[in-house]
Amino acid sequence: VWDVFHKTMTHPKRLRLCALQVQKKNYRQEKKRAAKELSSALKDPSVVITANWLKIRGSLKSWTKLWCALKPGVLLIYKTPKSDHWVGTLLLNACKLIERPSKKDGFCFKLYHPLDKSIWAVKGPKGENVGSITQPLPSNYLIFRAASESDGRCWMDALELALSCSSLYKLTAKAGRDGDLSTSSESSHILQLLQSTALTDAELANQQMENDGYSEKSEHDAQEDWDNGANENGGRLTEESDMDQSDELSPALQATSYVEQSQEEMAEAGEASQVETVSEENKGLIWTLLKQLRPGMDLSKVVLPTFILEPRSFLDKLSDYYYHANLLSEAAREESPYGRIKQVVRWYLSGFYKKPKGLKKPYNPILGETFRCCWLHPQTDSCTFYIAEQISHHPPISAFYVCNKKDGFYISGSILAKSKFYGNSLSAILDGRARLMLLGRDEEYIITMPYAHCKGILYGTMTLELGGKITIECEKTKYVAELEFKLKPFLGGSSSVNVISGKIQQGDELLATVDGHWDGEVFLQEKSGQQEHLWNPTPEVRSTRLKRQVVQLDQQGQFESERLWQHVTSAIVDRDQNQATQEKFVLEEAQRNQAKDRGDQPWRPRLFNLDSVTNEWTYTHIDTRPWDPERCLVQFEKHGVIQTKEKSQRRHKGLAYSRASAWACQQKVSERDTQIPLSILVSLPN
């Protein structure tokens, strides 16, 4: 029996069967181990294949340095290594990798979709819907520059490894979706990003034939190009003619880099935030100043003490009206003329609740001073730009231009700031008007401003209020809104502070009345008796308003507001009034010396010109053409010039591709996802 058993167990077929069983067991164990390792890598945020600074070229041919972190299946792009300012996520299973020649130092490589589809994920690693502001980046490729060739080769090796595992990433993502993997919040978002639908061979071939580069060469020529490129560069593809004349840096297409404003001051609603308590030392300064004044005197040439200054320029303060510019976007889309005038009034009221604590006056801008900023609109994938310039010093005139061409509106205007002293009070009068144009409607709204009134200078409590009657009028539709900002009466209580009232009418027909407080709730009463909230700056409204984007201090010109006044601002923030006064005197003295040097020669503004017909100041680079989605790509700004990047009519030379079957597993992206992400497109590089 033993002999029979021994012969049976040692038979070659039996031995091979046992060996096969052992191999299958090892195979299953190794497969589980690999899946477990990949699952752990996807679930563990600390797993990073490589991470370092890389320069990335934007669609406007300029470069910006961003932090790139390569994780299994995705390339995450951040502004800083802290990973708290996510810019965008590249799906590697939709990408091909290619080395790229460069005229400059360093090493360039390119990630791209061979069928010119989007390579961007819709959401971030933590489910973010909108990324941080950065330069405009292409939707279907990215060009990277490493600091040295060795660094670039390391990135190429790491990316090739990640690309070769793309199918495994997809399987793991499917397993996670089906419940086989327990994932954290961040890893689950990454797994969702890795899910994709493969293109069929027929779809791939059809889309390939539509590519200009593929249609210009035969399949044989394309095969030779692929083989030659791979042989000459160690098996890697190279892109040999992607640097034609259009790829050179074009000064007109480089754009300003904006960053989100870090902090701002905003007081609470009500009278308490509009009262200033003056110290004994500062009272002496006020009395010294008042001895020089006479009732009715214009204060534009009077040097004011720094303790009453708000640490920012008047050009900056004028931008407070656009934190809710999305209301103008909604007005442009509103079908009813009455609905549009209501929405414009709602936007107008949204600009007043933001105020500094106490009685503060912004800096009088220096002649030639400029200020620029913008607001990103996540809902409409657009951006509102604000440009202002001090075009005259005596009298002090500030011109401004606000534009969101994609959402269909712009505002142009100028303000002559005048101050009058009345003994125990003074008024700051904003003489001028703004023109709001809804491009798609061809409607122009003429808007005026209230005045600021300060009382209690000699006796009583120093208090700041808004007063006067304003109008918002559209000549085309005959709709007019009249609002009155009411000063607090002598015997009035807290409910009579910051009161506003008004009406909306068409011609002589009264349509609605308006009542409330300009820093709080405002109600609209229809003539039918129906009442609605016209405006209410609740904490939720304040927290969800548009975020202002500003230019970093080191990238500003010498005559930009923040850089120009930086030393005065620093001294005021440090409560060093003597130093603030000295720094302010330096600027004012320099301005007086420049005026002497000019003599009788008139000052010529850089960004605005005087319209000889209307006798109003208008933006030199104004563009009144409506947005054409078939032609317009992005609106951007550089050196104060707002312009629109349009699609080129030139046919680009494309790459010749072959081996279509190798791409049959690429991600199929919908038309919605092929659009450039907002945070990447509008946020404009230096």
TrEMBL record:
Region: Disordered, residue numbers: 210-276
Subcellular compartments: Endoplasmic reticulum membrane
A GO cellular component annotation in the UniProt record: cytosol
Every PH domain range: 47-164
Topological relation to the membrane, as annotated: Single-pass membrane protein
Database matches in Pfam families: Oxysterol_BP, PH
CDD domains attached to this UniProt entry: PH_OPR5_ORP8
Compositional bias per record (Basic and acidic residues), positions renumbered to this chain: 214-223
Gene name linked to the record: OSBPL5
Keyword field: Endoplasmic reticulum, Lipid transport, Lipid-binding, Membrane, Phosphoprotein, Transmembrane, Transmembrane helix, Transport
Gene3D superfamilies, A to Z: 1.10.287.2720, 2.40.160.120, 6.10.140.1150, Pleckstrin-homology domain (PH domain)/Phosphotyrosine-binding domain (PTB)
Keyword Endoplasmic reticulum: yes
Name of this chain's protein: Oxysterol-binding protein
InterPro entries tied to this protein: OSBP_sf, Oxysterol-bd, Oxysterol-bd_CS, PH-like_dom_sf, PH_domain
GO molecular function terms attached to this record: cholesterol binding
